[in-house]
Amino acid sequence: MRVTMTGTDLVGYLKKLDFNAHPSKWNGEKDNTVASHRVHDAVAPVIDKIEAATSPDDPEPQIIIDDTIKDKE
Question: Mean pLDDT in the chain?
């Protein structure tokens, strides 16, 4: 699945991920805490490395998340 977001959308999504991935002790964990943590950890470092485009031909940053469920050994 390919998802494209504007900068504003991505900021809102990252805030929601952060809230779900790092719940406060008062809110407690949610059903999607583990998944949110995994996605947050994949997205945040890529966002930190984004630099301003120098031309219209600069590629968009891409984040690939492997959603394969690993077999238990």
Answer: 80
